[in-house]
Amino acid sequence: xxxxxxxxxxxxxxxxxxxxxxxxxxxxxxxxxxxxxxxxxxxxxxxxxxxxxxxxxxxxxxxxxxxxxxxxxxxxxxxxxxxxxxxxxxxxxxxxxxxxxxxxxxxxxxxxxxxxxxxxxxxxxxxxxxxxxxxxxxxxxxxxxxxxxxxxxxxxxxxxxxxxxxxxxxxxxxxxxxxxxxxxxxxxxxxxxxxxxxxxxxxxxxxxxxxxxxxxxxxxxxxxxxxxxxxxxxxxxxxxxxxxxxxxxxxxxxxxxxxxxxxxxxxxxxxxxxxxxxxxxxxxxxxxxxxxx
Length: 293
What we know:
Layout: H1 2-38, H2 60-68, H3 71-102, H4 108-117, H5 127-144, H6 154-179, H7 183-190, H8 195-206, H9 208-224, H10 227-232, H11 240-253, H12 257-292
């Protein structure tokens, strides 16, 4: 009797898990599929059933979004800013997380606590001070050189993105480095490798799954970020998220929905492609981290 009750409980639990996963998958797949279909519809098709399949592939929507709404320019800006931010972030975070996790020195405990404290700082709370600081610096440069540098600058925006993501990235990488055995470092030391050689040739390749997770998470964060991009790029070099909202406002006012959904696809497609490319490595990284922890 107890065995039968246990089997029923396990079956109900599995059923609950499957239903939850199917519901979650449907809540993600259905909106994405709907946006993809809407992006190739003509404007007249939106006045019928919203679930009707498109009568044809009206790719003119993408041409209007790229050319007339300047989504191609915004896409290039987002690619440049996101790439710069990830490169700067990895250059700083990888050595810092390795040193903080594998070495003990004067002030290391304070630095670790300082990094963890940064996890509790919400970027939304410091946007105004950042903007005022850059505005003051630009004012000084305009007085000296005649032109500013810090606002409407993709490099500066990428640097700020990387700075705001440093605490989480260092914390995540440090946690992974701490799980790696020290035998490899000792073997490298015996072979005559220094600290830098050991880090780049031995430890970083072992931490590749964790690095891929960091790149994916931060790519999604930087790619979809809106508030900093809107505040620090008030005139030129607008990113894709800012351009998408401008496009949505313009097309909605003009009752022209096709290019609006085409713009959504342009924003969404790179993240989907990146996830498909790194999906297997992402799963392996999370599994390896869990096993070693």
